[in-house]
Amino acid sequence: MIDLRSDTVTRPSEAMRKAMYQAEVGDDVYGDDPTVNALQAQVCELTGKEAALFFPTGTQANLVALLSHCQRGDEYIVGQKAHNYMYEGGGAAVLGSIQPQPLDMAEDGTIPLDKVAAAIKADDIHFARTRLLSLENTHSGKVLPLDYLQRAFAFTREKGLALHIDGARIMNAAVALDVPLGDITRYCDTLTICLSKGLGTPVGSVLCGSREFIQRANRWRKMTGGGMRQSGILAAAAIYALENNVQRLQEDHDNARWLEQQLRAIGLDIVAPGAQTNILYLRQSAERAARLGPWMRERGVLISSAPLTRLITHINISRQDLEKVVELWQRFLRDPG
To answer: Is the dihedral of CA 53, 59, 60, 64 positive or negative?
Structure first.
């Protein structure tokens, strides 16, 4: 199957599986897994942060970040469509008693800082205490501009807030900007990096921050069930990905832009700004969307067909695969029956 639903569907290569098989392991809850420790040190070097902590999922890593930044009755400011507000089960509120303050995002994925300033609560017993600004990079495939990140970081220093970045696809952002990852991560206190999307690992995310912050996060990781044992098998896949699969993200970006051009040429309604990284959105009628999904599945293509359809390129999608997708789409438009 050609699976364009998400880059979460990626499968480990034979070389990655070999690295996993050969991994040296220990008990990570005791801090004894040498491969996990090596991964965390490697991520610290890439991000410029003092410490890092390996998690089974990005949702848990983001949750623990919020739990470590905020106490019960505190508040975090977040984008209305951000993943750690809309798509992570309300964990901060349900499990942490942390109040989200969602704000509308700009077209480029940023949260306007004047809106953030207006949303910060006064020091008054009637209000939750505003503690954190949470950003997402990339958001829907959009890369947050470096000058915005710099201004946001300075703004949070001025306002006494911490700044967290949900960096599920932050490696895509670094590749798209053609800068070292540290040029992005210098403008935040903490961040998560997902390893199981475009980087192609089967499992895992990393949370990065100061040593003191990661000490608090380690307690929350244990409490929320994320303390793994011989997890070096998984960390070995992550190390392989960081050493081999980062720069190749450019291929995914190029494929997404090629797909955008081809689908635009056959008359599809591409949502602006198009493919900045590996994510592309298009609009279609609800009636057409309802027919398209099953039609494509019958012919070996998986897409999340909806009035707003998201297509994502990744390590297991080739240009030849996309050529087939375009040819099938043309056939569907000619004869959807």
So the answer is: positive
